[in-house]
Write a structure and sequence with these properties.
CATH topology of the largest domain: Rhopdopsin 7-helix transmembrane proteins
Pfam families: 7tm_1
Number of strands: 4
Helix content: over 70%
InterPro entries: Anphylx_rcpt_C3a/C5a1-2, Formyl_rcpt-rel, GPCR_Rhodpsn, GPCR_Rhodpsn_7TM
CATH class of the largest domain: Mainly Alpha
Distance between the termini: 52 Å
Largest sheet: 4 strands, antiparallel
Number of helices: 12
Low-confidence stretches: 1-11, 177-212, 338-367
Family: Belongs to the chemokine-like receptor (CMKLR) family. Belongs to the G-protein coupled receptor 1 family.
Shape: globular
Order of helices and strands: HHHHHHEEEEHHHHHH
CATH superfamily of the largest domain: Rhodopsin 7-helix transmembrane proteins
Radius of gyration: 23 Å
Keywords: Cell membrane, Disulfide bond, G-protein coupled receptor, Membrane, Phosphoprotein, Receptor, Transducer, Transmembrane, Transmembrane helix
Strand order of the largest sheet: 1-2-3-4
Mean pLDDT: 73
Protein name: C3AR protein
Length: about 375
C-alpha cells in the first residue's frame, strides 16, 4: 500500500496509543486466563463428574473444553505482546498455537449452533426428540463438530511460518505474495510510525509491493472465517430462537426448560458481543479502500477486538453460575462435599443421608 506517514507529533501520539492498547490487552488476557482456567475447569469437573450425564451436560462440557483450550494459549500471547510482537517460540509452535485458537473458535460456534438447533427441535418437535434425543447421539454430533473445526483450522497450520526481520522474529502466514497473520497481529511501533508496515487486521504486507491489493489466499481465509465462523452461525441461531419465542408464547413451556433456554440465550448473546468486533475488523481489512481510509483506527482497535474475543472464554462459566440455578446448586454441593471431607475424617450418618438426599434431588433435574 502507499506510504502513509505523519509528522512527529502524530507518530508519537500513535505510538502512545499502541503502547497503551498493548498494556490494556495484556491486562485483559491475564484476567481472562486467571478466571477462565479455574472457571472452565470447574464446569468440566461439575458437568463431567458431579452431574448425571444428560444432553445438556454433554453440550456444556464440550463448550468448556473448547474455552479451556483457548485460555491455555493465552500465556504465549501475553509474552508475545510483552516482547513487542517478537515470537520466541519457534516455527512449530508458530503453527500449533494459532491453529488451536482458530480450532477452538470454530468448535465453540459450531457447538452453539448445534445447541440452538437442539433447543429449537425440543420445542418444535417434542415427539421426535423424545425418540431420538439421546446422550450417545449428541456425543456423536459433538465428535463431528470437533472434526469439522479441525478441518477449518488446517489452513492456519499449513501456511504458518516464522520470518525474521532486523533480528525480530514474527509468526505469520506465507500465502505466496504477502504474509498473513492471525490475532494477535504483528504490529510494531518503532521510532518511525509507518502504516505501510501494517497491512491489515490479519495481515502484515509486503511493503515493497506498493499497492493496496489483498492476496487472494488471505482474503479467502479471512472471509471464510467471518462467514462460517460468525455470520452464517449467528443467522441460524437467530432463526432458531425466533421460532422458539414464537412457539413458547403460544404454549407455555416447563419452567426448567425456560431456565435452560435463558442460560443458552445468554451464552449466545455473549458470543455475539465478544466476537462481532473481531470479525468486523478482520472484514474491513479485506476491503482495500476501507482499509486505507480507516487504517489508523483499525490498527488501534485491532488488539482490543482480539482481547474482547478471548474474554468470551471466561464469560460462559460466570453465566452458568449466575443464570443456571441448578448448576449453581451443584457447585455449592461439590464445594461443600470437598470441605466436609477435608475437615472431617468421617462423616456422620445424618450428614451422609442429607448429602445423598440433596444429590438425588439435584440429579433429577437438568441444567
Amino acid at each position: 500500500m502507499p506510504q502513509v506517514t505523519g509528522n512527529s507529533s502524530s507518530e508519537e501520539q500513535a505510538a502512545g496509543y499502541y503502547a497503551s492498547e498493548s498494556i490494556v490487552c495484556i491486562a485483559i488476557f491475564t484476567i481472562v486466563f486467571i478466571i477462565g482456567i479455574p472457571g472452565n475447569g470447574l464446569v468440566i469437573w461439575v458437568a463431567g463428574l458431579k452431574m448425571k450425564r444428560s444432553v445438556n451436560t454433554v453440550w456444556f462440557l464440550n463448550l468448556a473444553v473448547a474455552d479451556t483450550m483457548c485460555c491455555l494459549s493465552l500465556p504465549f500471547f501475553i509474552v508475545h505482546l510483552a516482547l513487542h510482537e517478537h515470537w520466541p517460540y519457534g516455527w512449530f509452535l508458530c503453527k500449533v498455537i494459532p491453529s488451536v485458537i482458530i480450532f477452538t473458535m470454530f468448535a465453540s460456534v459450531f457447538l452453539l449452533v448445534a445447541i440452538s438447533i437442539d433447543r429449537c427441535l425440543l420445542v418444535m418437535k417434542p415427539v421426535w426428540c423424545q425418540n431420538h434425543r439421546r446422550v450417545k447421539f449428541i456425543s456423536l454430533i459433538c465428535s463431528g463438530i470437533w472434526m469439522l473445526a479441525f478441518i477449518f483450522c488446517c489452513p492456519v497450520f499449513y501456511y504458518r511460518e516464522t520470518s525474521t526481520y532486523d533480528g525480530k522474529t514474527e509468526c505469520g502466514y506465507n500465502s505466496g505474495v504477502d504474509d498473513y497473520i492471525d490475532y494477535p497481529v504483528n504490529v510494531s511501533v518503532n521510532e518511525s510510525w509507518d502504516y505501510s508496515t501494517y497491512n491489515g487486521s490479519d495481515f502484515w504486507g509486503d511493503t515493497n509491493e506498493g499497492n493496496d491489493s489483498v492476496p487472494l489466499a488471505s482474503a479467502v481465509i479471512n472471509i471464510t472465517r467471518a462467514v462460517f465462523g460468525f455470520v452464517l452461525p449467528f443467522g441460524i441461531m437467530a432463526v432458531c430462537y425466533a421460532l422458539i419465542v414464537f412457539r413458547t408464547r403460544a404454549n407455555q413451556f416447563h419452567k426448567s426448560h425456560n431456565r435452560t433456554l435463558q442460560t443458552i440465550v445468554c451464552v449466545v448473546a455473549a458470543f455475539f458481543i465478544c466476537w462481532a468486533p473481531y470479525h468486523v475488523v478482520g472484514t474491513l481489512f479485506v476491503v482495500p479502500s476501507l482499509r486505507t481510509r480507516l487504517m489508523e483506527s483499525l490498527i488501534l482497535w485491532d488488539h482490543l477486538s482480539t482481547a474482547l474475543a478471548y474474554a468470551n472464554s471466561c464469560i460462559n462459566p460466570l453465566l452458568y453460575v449466575f443464570v443456571g440455578r441448578d448448576f449453581r446448586a451443584k457447585v455449592r454441593q461439590s464445594v461443600q462435599r470437598i470441605l466436609e471431607n477435608a475437615f472431617n475424617e468421617e462423616l456422620t450418618s445424618s450428614t451422609l443421608h442429607r448429602s445423598q438426599t440433596s444429590a438425588e434431588k439435584n440429579l433429577s433435574s437438568t441444567l
